[in-house]
């Protein structure tokens, strides 16, 4: 079985040693560091009192919210196929805490640091039958030691961007043992499968199964009640909902709305910042005021302002349902374009910034003429967005047709969750048969 190198272990130990210094400057990071230190003990306690060795244990790990949604969709499909399984869910990012708290797992927590001693203690106590990584967040120490212990290791919803740093030296050399330990992987597309081979995963262990996120998005949209109060926020005026925005996105959006108001003063904008901190919202209010527009926050909304600033988290997927058109943030900076599938599932046209090429979902929408990508220049981007926004208001048939094409893109991607869960069921059965 492959093992991690001394270089990888030294890198992790150095990162663990430096992490508290980062926590001094970020409260959320500090809280996450504290939670992660105690996560191993909490998981050991769960194993001591709740682990039923007569039942298979499937351990899902997903780094953050996006990967967590993909894992959740497969997890639910697995629950339907194998209700006898116990399920453990771990995450890495603090942003995934809310998702972890409500996911349908028997236990959930932070993933402890990827060091030999804590990993060995957890594997010995939990005795999992299957360890499942989501998307690409494979931790080599956990992966290799689990495989050495006889645990089946799997990767689902595997996506490797062409420019991923994992493909370059020294990251590829440090991470390769973790990928070589994987028994089976479900890749989103053939190009992802090819790049997984470059990371060290043998080609005969990879299957192209699609992206479970399509199933997850349709399920979430389908469960929103028609009388949800958030859906009423778009009534009475043509409304654009801009989700997961950063300052570079917001500058373009405010400028575009200012231009649009010369023709359609009734148009409204609902802004959902990626990080709705008080400091960020205050700066955003100043920007809106400088543009001669009015704004109010969702928590104190009276419905009289042109721009609604959302100061809550966890409501974006529903808010897209209040929109006639959508904008997805992240395409003007280096953070990366956020999920474009949620607004597409609501059957509305989608717009985003120029850095979308690493998003397969955005590419599918552009190819289907269901989305527009804005130019790089902020001034030109605002003008193009304003023009399209005006067209969407004035030509309802064209807007609806573009929205239908967006929904069709999502519907064509369904089924990956079931296929991925079936792959996991096969691994569980193989493991149980050997035992």
What does this structure look like?
By secondary structure, this protein is α/β, with parallel strands linked by helices. The chain has 2 domains: 6-210 and 415-434, 3-Layer(aba) Sandwich (Rossmann fold); 225-412, Rossmann fold (3-Layer(aba) Sandwich), CATH 3.40.50. Helices cover 49% and strands 15% of the residues. Strands 3-2-1-4-5-6-7 form a 7-stranded parallel β-sheet, sandwiched between helices. A 7-stranded parallel β-sheet has the order 10-11-9-8-12-13-14, sandwiched between helices. Helix 10 packs across helix 15. It starts with 5 loop residues before the first helix and ends with a helix. 47% of the residues are buried. The mean pLDDT is 92.
CATH architecture of the largest domain: 3-Layer(aba) Sandwich
Low-confidence stretches: none
* Full CATH superfamily name of the largest domain: 3-Deoxy-D-manno-octulosonic-acid transferase, N-terminal domain
Instruction: Calculate the mean pLDDT score and round it.
Output: 92
Basic shape: globular
Q: Could you please say which CATH topology of the largest domain applies here?
A: Rossmann fold
Work out the count of structural domains: 2
Report the end-to-end length measured between terminal Cα atoms.
Answer: 19 Å
Tell me the number of helical segments per DSSP (H or I, 4 or more residues long): 17
Strand fraction: 5-15%
What percent of the residues sit in helical stretches (DSSP H or I)? 40-55%
Radius of gyration: 23 Å
Biggest sheet: strand arrangement: 3-2-1-4-5-6-7
| Class from secondary-structure proportions | alpha/beta
What's the story with the biggest beta sheet? 7 strands, parallel
Please report the total strand number as a whole number. Answer: 14
Q: Any idea of the CATH class of the largest domain?
A: Alpha Beta
